[in-house]
Design goal:
The chain has about 375 residues and is an alpha/beta fold. About 40% of the residues lie in helices and about 15% in strands. The chain is globular and about 75 Å long. Bound molecules: pyridoxal-5'-phosphate.
Length: about 375
Amino acid sequence: MQIPYGRQTIDEEDIWAVTRILKSDYLTTGPMIPEFEKTIADYTGAKYAVALANGTAALHAACFAAGIGPGDEVITTPLTFAASANSVLYCGGTPVFADVDERTYNLDPKDVRKKITNKTKAILPVHLAGQPCDMDAIHSLAKEYNLTVIEDGAHALGSEYKGRKIGSISDMTTFSFHPVKPVTTGEGGMVTTDSRELYERLCLFRSHGITRDGKRMARNDGPWFYQQVDLGFNYRITDIQCALGISQMKKLDFFLSRRRELVERYNEAFAGCTDIITPYQLPQTNSGWHLYIIQVKNHNRRRVFEKLRENGIGVNVHYIPVYMHPYYQEHGYQNVHCPKAENIYLRIISLPLYPGLSDEEQEYVIVKVKESIYEAI
Ligand SMILES: *Cc1c(COP(=O)(O)O)cnc(C)c1O
């Protein structure tokens, strides 16, 4: 048996949606892009959404739109995929790592406060595993110090904070549509915002910094005219991908309910195991459960991990604290320590969780987890 930790769910409707576009006039920059953007904006409750080539491009665009540049500090979590912090580096800014809350594994607002300096420009919280961060506390810090908030919602499409969908709360929120994420376009990303100004900057950045908007151009030679007014990239997504995204969004609520069902079964199965710490959920939040992360005792982790891999179970570790990577160690982060994040890193294992995981497969995972923990003791 081979069970991955995450996997896309594609049906005939998705396949039809994509092949229909292959036979149409536009493979890219056609009508599917604004339709997908509207689908995500409507779903999250944001005014605007800008689709991009991938989630990393979305983060890069958001940092650009926020005006992050050399000398600016952006506070983020070490327990994330490298892209969250890299996007700050792309803009010439400096990621600053604050420690996490031991229960949620998300940014601890108390430690964020300690890391604020007069160079801090933004806070970049990541909703790890789909578990929403303490956004009220983060927003009150942002207000107090006049900071932009960019949420990395790569895990959190469909997650809710105090009754609001992630994507509608902060200045900007980014999403990823990589195959393991809540819905997929193959590769793809999105930024949501309520700000017209940020929306326009995001659109500019996605396509070379080129505009055809008369209001933005210094002059206008005629109907063929356009001007490059900033330095952007080709971060466009295709119509083929957006057609898949639109089709996938019709199934998101089903995907979320199946994930929640699987999480409840895991929680029940491990409730009596004193050697496993199951995920904690912050009150007044509703996680989309992108990942199911358990903690096992430090000295058992490698053995348990290896044992599960030997049994064909694609466990993973989310994440190695970003500043521990050689690139960061070689670029000024050798003395950075977030003790809670480092401790969590030593103990965590992500178990398989995706809508297509069957009850039988999950049962097999549960048995093997218990077996391997018992053997490791
Ligand atoms: C997947 C992911 C990204 C990057 O998204 P891509 O679409 O792979 O570029 C960024 N942040 C987090 C937390 C992610 O999990």
